[in-house]
């Protein structure tokens, strides 16, 4: 079998899994977005960032995943036109960066809330600006990928296939540098942010004394902040576990163009399997926040 032949053999297994993933992720994230939007008591910086994370996952699963999967299993290649080729490539990368930057911003916000409890909270206008900056930076970081994507119609040379792929002609060093940079920004950044934030929050909670407050009140405040941060930690750990296989495979493919590490016969199946695991990260956040976050659970129960 060639890599594509083996992948097509496994199509009956992968398609239902992807369909389930898209259905669960779109439903869960849309519900989370609506819950935050319609519940005024949930209107705060952290929850707006959670909503932004849910929006990125929703867009990725609705607009990018179905087309990417179709391309992977379609022998004729890309069937959605030139514009969608570049658009999906851009949005696939951008939504990942939005998720990463949102998780990072949540970690920073949690630290600020604990370290400076009496400081005035960020206004809604400022929060909107933060969300807009996250999307702008994410799109800018994704532009190199889109610029190096090519839409090639092979029908003009007698092959019934259209290719939508990323090519870095004579720019091997630049491609490797960009890949390493993206690995740091799209994977290591949220892990580092949460780790630093966790250490800083732990330090502040241990040394804090609330003047004039009773110990039960202080204990309640401390436990509330710890529980909120625990939810963020679970979310980031899920993100890290889901994306690790794809990050490793992509890095290996970047440094191993001759397929000496990954066998050509299995590389497509490995790539799609890792992509499926990575995309599944979009399913978990709604359940994490609904089950572990007290406020989300309370307001969720009020609608049913």
UniProtKB/TrEMBL annotation:
One of its GO terms (cellular component) is neuron projection. GO terms for molecular function: neuropeptide binding; neuropeptide Y receptor activity. Gene3D superfamilies: Rhodopsin 7-helix transmembrane proteins (1.20.1070.10). It is a multi-pass membrane protein. It is found in: Membrane. Its main location: membrane. Pfam families: 7tm_1. This is Prolactin-releasing peptide receptor. It comes from Anas platyrhynchos (Mallard).
